[in-house]
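Milestone M4 deliverable, item 7.
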Amino acid sequence: MLVTILLLGATVWVWEDVVKDRVIPKRFGVVKQGQIYRSGQLSSSLVKRTLIKYKIGVIVSLSGDSAGDVDREAEKQAAAELGVERTSERVDEMMKAITAPDNTKIFSLNALSKRGR
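Output delivered:
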């Protein structure tokens, strides 16, 4: 009985912490069907097929462009290969607003958007 519980617990842990985000797009959702989608940072194993499946034309990344991040690099490469526009330029502006002393409200959204397709 104890072994079964431990195996079940280990299986749940492996699914949640290791496998899930490589199989299912992280926090993926529809904002406006056929036009705007949102997600967390997609795994390198999912980004290209997700862009193709949903016919994404524009990626707005609020995660920044940290060098050495495998998933972000895969996103950049897939966007370039598929001709998908990708921007993360406004992240710097957003960070300035967040850290400004007079800041009162913050709204943030990672959005995958279709560009006229």
